[in-house]
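Reviewers of the previous submission asked for a worked example of the structure-prediction workflow described in the proposal, so we include one complete record here. The input consisted solely of the amino acid sequence. No template or homolog information was supplied to the procedure at any stage.
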Amino acid sequence: MATGGRDAAAQPEGADDTPLHRAIGPKLLILFVVGDILGTGIYATTGQVAGKVGGALWLPFVIGFVVAILTAASYVELVGKYPKAAGAALYTQKAFQVPFLTFIVAFMVMCSGLSSASAAARAFSGDYLGEFTDLFPPTLVAILFILALSALNLRGVSESVKTNVVLTVVELTGLFVILAVGAWAVLGGEGEPSRLGEFQAGGTGYALLTSVLGATALGFFAFVGFEDSVNMAEETKDPARTFPRAVFIGVAVTGTIYVLVALVSSLLVDYRVLEDSSGPLLEVVKAGGLDFPPKLFALIALFAVTNSALINIMMASRLCYGMANERILPRPLGRVLPRRRTPVVGIVFVSLLAIGLVSTGEIAGLGDTTAFLLLCVFAVVNIAVLVLRRDRVEHRHFRTPTVLPVLGAITSLILASPLSDRPAHVYVRAGVLLAIGIGLWVVNKAVMKARGEEDELSGS
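From that input alone, the workflow returned the following structure tokens.
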């Protein structure tokens, strides 16, 4: 991962000099994008979104879908222009040439993975697991869950794209069960259509605006993941042509499913019941009247959140390893376990952070932290698209209409702002994570200076 210094900008764009095998075609990439987006967000935070907005649960997902499409268009232009596997950090470095900003963006992406994995751990330890056992405190279960995933990661868990296809099918099955339950109930005359227009805040004006924005900001957690697909650029056949269709189809498919799931959830279950549950879609299955075993659905949901958490823990530990190798984090964080060839110190570091997060946060707060961190990153990426228009490359690539990144930056900043009625502890949690990162940055610079080593972060 090139996050700063010379490596981030030295590779010639469009050059097919990657040592990685280009094995991913359009269909596999679409399934990869869908699989990356699906998971904890829709399975765990639907109830908390309903608690913020009320019966009009579908509206935040519609707005979130629009915001996701705007930012996806920027990612598609940039990955076509610079088909390298470094994502937002690479685009930030190329656009602004400020290594500290590049580091902050990379560290925010890493922390978003940790908060997402922590939200998944909380979801795992809640009502879905409660279908099988409630012998242990949820916080203890969440911590053991993180430790188990870290142990798997340490042993060298490797997931191919084809394996991801299987996992995606399982996750999709659970959501299709919800849609089938909804169709059965509606055809049987069940459900309360009047709920779909009910807002928790009531009335109009500022309170209604902030409740919708707050619900959208939290609901946006369900859409994150498409940005990870750019890391497959070096293993994708003809990425400049393949990525636009794959990303847009992937976001459109998941967005449509999310809106339909939200409609079904609100039709069948009162938003207050959804809000009180850490397994809200399980409440929908139980209320639908279709004879589908709740335990089987709970098992599917547990699998979905486990997969999300494992992928995010792996991503965060590899980002930590990459930043250590780029000399923007202390070098010990890049140390590899000799026999397993896994980034042992990075895994331990991110696991400790994740344990701290699950010990101090709940599903809604952790999901909101993930969304906040990525909304900040998305704002930078949308601006980077416009800045990099002056950097022309020889090969053809997708170019998004200028208005889309402008709107993407504005909507991302609005959803990241206090207008979204985000609890103060979310900003505090994100601030603490960034403070840890900045502290490591400062220590690393001091050590490098004391050793008289070339400091690539200064651009020298």
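The CA atoms of residues 379 and 413 lie 6 Å apart. We consider this example representative of the routine output the project will generate in years two and three.
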